[in-house]
Design brief:
The structure is a single chain. This protein has helices at residues 8-18, 99-112, 120-127, 176-185, 194-206, 222-226, 231-235, 243-247, 292-311, 322-326, 333-341, and strands spanning 4-7, 23-30, 33-38, 64-71, 83-84, 92-97, 129-134, 160-165, 168-173, 254-261, 264-271. By secondary structure, the protein is of the alpha/beta class. It folds into two domains: 4-60 and 88-206, no CATH class; 222-341, no CATH class. The strands form two sheets. The protein has a seven-stranded mixed sheet with strand order 1-9-8-7-6-2-3, with helices on both faces. The chain has a four-stranded antiparallel sheet with strand order 5-4-11-10, with no helix packed on it. A hairpin with a 2-residue loop joins β8 (160-165) and β9 (168-173). It starts with a strand and ends with a helix.
Length: 344
Amino acid sequence: MKVIKIDKEEWAKGVLALADTWQIFGPAKEKDYHEFKILGKGELPDLNFQNTRLSPKNMVFPQSEDMLEYTLDETKQDHHIMKEVKKDYPRVAVIGIRPCDARAISLVKMNFDTQEYKEPYWLKKYESAIFVGVACDNPHSTCFCTTAGCGPYNEEGLDVLLVDADADYLVKPLTEKGEKLLQAAGWQNESGDQSIIESKKSLAEAKIVTQVVTDKLKDRKLLDLHAADFWEDISFACINCGACAYICPTCWCFDIQDEVHWKSGKRIRNWDSCMFPLFTLHTTGHNPRGTKVQRVRQRFMHKLKYFVDKYEKGIMCAGCGRCVRQCPVNIDIRKVCNLMNNWG
C-alpha cells in the first residue's frame, strides 16, 4: 500500500483546500480540553491532544435531533400530519479522529444498519462523512484498546490514517473515498516510508499498560452471569449520573419526545442512558429495572455479553478508557470485564 508524505508546512494549505468541498469536523481546544466540532472558516483541527472528553459520535448521532414536525392548527391543510424535518447532509471530513473512536462507530453501525432495519438519520450522516484518523502515539494510562479488538494504529472504520512523523505526516489512504480526499487536498507525494509507520506502531502498542481478558465471555452462560454475586459490589458506589454513557463512543441509547409550543410541534430524539431510572419506566408505573444494581448490570451485560453473543464481533467497547477516567466513583469496566470473563 502506498504511503503519502506531507510536509507539515503544507498541511494547513491542504486542509483549507478541503474546506472548499467539505465541512471540517475536528478537535479544537475548549478551555482545558479538546472537543470535536465543526470548524469555522480558516480554522484548522488541533492535533495536539491525547483524546477528547466526549467522543466524536455526535457527528453521526447528535445529542438532540429534530425528526418530525407537525401543526395542530386546523386552519391549515396539513394539520395533524407528521412530516419529516427537511435536512441537509453536507459532506463532512472528520479530521483527527482516533482509531478507537473510528472502531466504535463501526460497532455502532452494526445496530443502525441491519438487513431488517436501516436507521436513516444515522446512516445519512455516516455516508456523507469521510474519516481521517490520527494514529495514537501517546495513549492514556487507562487505555486498553489492544485487548478490546482495536489498537493505537487500528485502521477499521477509517478512510485515511495519518501518522505524525516529526517534520512530516505519513498518510495511508485506506478507501476510495480516502484517495479522493487526498487528491482534493493536493497530497500526492508517494515518498512515505511504511517501515517508519510499522516501527511507530510497535512503540505505541507497547505503551498500552492495561488490558481486559475476553476469551471466555462467549462461552459463559448468560443466566449464570446475570445471577453472579459481584453485581451488588460493583453497583454500590454508582450514583446513576450517566457520565459513562454520554462519554462512551459505543453507547447508542436514545429517547424520543414530542415538544409542542402553542400549535406547532416537533418530535425530537435525545441521548438517553440505561443508567437512568426513567429509561425503562412503563406508562403503567412498572419499571423492570427499578433498582440501581439492575441498571448497572444491564450496562455491562449489554457491552460484554449480549453484544458478544448477538454479533460475534467481540465486545461493545473500543478500549478508549473514557469511562474509567470520568466515572466520579471509580467504577472500572476493565475490572468488570475480567470478573465476568473469569466467573464460575
